[in-house]
Amino acid sequence: MQRAQARIVPPPGSRRVPFGDLAREYAALRPQLDAAWQRVCARGWFVLGAEVEAFEQAFAAYCGARHGVGVASGTDALHLALRGLGIGAGDEVVTVAHTAGATVMAVLLTGATPVLVDIDPATGTIDPAAAAAAIGPRTRALLPVHLYGQPAALAALQALAARHGLALVEDCCQAHGARHGGRHVGTVGAAGCFSFYPSKNLGAYGDGGMVVTNDDALAERLRRLRQYGWRVRDESLDEGLNSRLDELQAAILRVKLGQLDAWQVRRVALAARYNAGLVSVPGLALPPAVPGTEPAWHLFVVRTARRDALRRALAADGVGTGVHYRLPAHRQAGYARAVVGPGGLAASERWAAEVLSLPLFPYLREDEVDWVIAAVRRAEETMG
C-alpha cells in the first residue's frame, strides 16, 4: 500500500533537474569573469605570470598554508607532490580503490606501486586500520582521499604516518574548503593536492590544479618540476615536465575564490534539505555525519542496493544523477600494476555497487531539491 504524499510542483519551465549547471554560475558572475579574462588578454602574458602568482598566494592563504604551486591538473598535483617527496620506482604508496582514477594513476606515474586498501564502510574514506595493515618495508607514503568532500580520518592517519616515518599526502581534489578538527584539509600532511576541473567546488574553465604545503624545500622543488626542472630558464636541475596553471584560468579562479565560502554555506544548506527530506526513505543510506569534520559537500551521495533501478526512475522523472564511482581501481585494466592490500576490498566493492550522486551545486534551487526528494520517494514506493 502506497503512502499518501503531498503534490510537488515540477520546477518552473520544465521537469528537468540537471546534475550540474555551470551556465548558471557564469550568468551570476559574468561581469567579474569577463573583466578577468579581458585583463589577461590585454596584458598579453599567458603562462606563469602575475595572475598565477596572485592566485597561488590567495589560495594558499585561504587553506592556511605557506605555499601554493599551480599546475596543469589535479592529477599532476598528486603526481608532482609524490615525486617532489622523492617517491618513485620500488616504493609503495597506500591509498584506496574507491576513488577517481587520477588518485591511483598519479602513483603509477611516479613509478611507485599503489597498494589499495579498503574504506571505512560508514564514511567511504580510507580505513586507518586497513592502511596500517598494508604498511611494509617499501611503503613511503599514505595517500588518503577526502571523498565527495568528506575529510578522511586525518588525526589517525597523521599519527600512523609519524609512527612509520611516512609522508602523508592529501588528495583534496573534491574537498576545497573542507575542514577536519578546525583545520582546512590539505594542511595536515606534507602536501595537499587540489583539482580545479570545472565541476569542482572551485573550478576553472578548463583543467588546473595546485599543491599547497608548509614545506619550503618541497615548494621550491615543485616549482622546478612543473617546468622542465628549471632552476633558471633553460637550465634543468631535475627531470621535470610541462605542467603549468595558465594565466586565464588563474584569473577566473581568483574571481571564484571570493565566492567559495558563500557557495559552501549554500552547499551545506542544500545538503541539509536533502537529509531532512530523505531521512525516512527505507533502504536509502544518507551521507554520514562525522564529528569534528566540516565536509565540502562536493557531491551528495546516497547508497541503495537498488541503485540502477533508482537511477532509471529518476531519469524518467527528469532528474540528472551520477555514479562516483562504479568500478574500483583494482577492477580496471589500466591500473593492473596496483596491488590489493591485506583484508581485501569488500566495503569498496559494496559502495561501488550502491552509490548514487544526486544534484548538488550552489545555484540549484530549493524547488529543484524538493522535486528530487519527491522523485526519490516516488521511485522507492514504486519499486516497493
Structural descriptors:
Aspartate Aminotransferase, domain 2; Aspartate Aminotransferase, domain 1; 2 domains; eight-stranded mixed sheet; three-stranded antiparallel sheet; 12 helices; 15 strands
Write a structural description.
The protein contains twelve helices and 15 strands. It is α/β, with parallel strands linked by helices. It has two domains: 223 residues, Type I PLP-dependent aspartate aminotransferase-like (Major domain) (Aspartate Aminotransferase, domain 2, 3-Layer(aba) Sandwich); 125 residues, Aspartate Aminotransferase, domain 1, CATH 3.90.1150.10. The strands form four sheets. An eight-stranded mixed beta sheet has the order 1-9-8-5-4-2-3-14, with helices on both faces. Strands 7-6-12 form a three-stranded antiparallel beta sheet, with no helix packed on it. The longest helix has 22 residues. The N and C termini lie close together (9 Å).
Summarize the structure.
With 384 residues, the protein is of the alpha/beta class.
Class inferred from helices and paired strands: alpha/beta
Number of extended strands: 15
- Total separate domains: 2
- CATH fold category name of the largest domain: Aspartate Aminotransferase, domain 2
Number of helices: 12
Mean pLDDT: 94
Straight-line distance between termini: 9 Å
Oligomer: single chain
Task: Furnish the topology, listing elements before pairings.
Elements: H1 22-43, H2 50-63, E1 67-71, H3 74-84, E2 92-96, H4 101-110, E3 113-117, H5 128-134, E4 139-142, H6 154-164, E5 167-171, E6 179-180, E7 183-184, E8 191-195, E9 209-213, H7 216-225, E10 230-232, E11 235-236, H8 247-257, H9 260-278, E12 293-294, E13 300-303, H10 307-316, E14 339-340, H11 346-354, E15 355-358, H12 366-383
Parallel strand pairs: 2-3, 2-4, 3-14, 4-5, 5-8
Antiparallel strand pairs: 1-9, 6-7, 6-12, 8-9, 10-11, 13-15
